[in-house]
Amino acid sequence: MNATAAIKTYASVGVETSVGSADSHKLILMLYQGALLAIASAKNQMLRKETAKKGKSISHAIAIIESGLHASLDKNVGGELAQNLSSLYEYMGMRLITANLKNDMAALDEVTRLLTELKGAWESIRQPATEEQALAQRPMPAARAPLTYGKM
Question: Which of 70, 126, 139, 144 is most buried by its number of CB atoms within 10 A?
Fold first, then answer.
């Protein structure tokens, strides 16, 4: 296994471990970050004229937005805010398709700006854990067998 493959494998395990231990708030942040990273990759690939890789990165960003962020909306509970986010996610998907078809860097920049603003807003609504919640989330120490004394 070469060094690049080893690094990719290690990074993949790190992401899978993070996902497995993340709460729903953290998962949404990870989706925003993943979409932003995919778009940044697409921008670099567009500059290097790597058309196939650019298309794959943009498709990945669209999948994160549609299958992750958009799919996580509960329009029944979220009301007008969820409806507005739904429309915005659809708009971002269309802008990414345009960026892919027309090599439109401005469209990638626009979606990056929108996702960055949403990510920042999502980060700001994180409620600090109360001491009781923090204690409840800490792993329990391993139980020790009770000490027993033999009869003398």
Answer: 70
Which residue intervals of 103-142 are DSSP H helices?
105-124, 131-137
Amino acid at 86: S
Q: In the prediction, which pLDDT does 126 show? A: 78
Q: Which residues contact 58 (CB under 8 A, 6 or more apart)?
A: 38, 39, 42, 96, 97, 99, 100
Task: Compute the C-alpha angle 104/108/112, nearest 5°.
Answer: 165
Q: CA-to-CA distance for 64 and 7, rounded, in angstroms?
A: 23
Question: Could you give the domains of the chain?
Answer: 22-124 (1.20.120.340)
Please provide the average confidence, as pLDDT, over all residues in the chain: 81
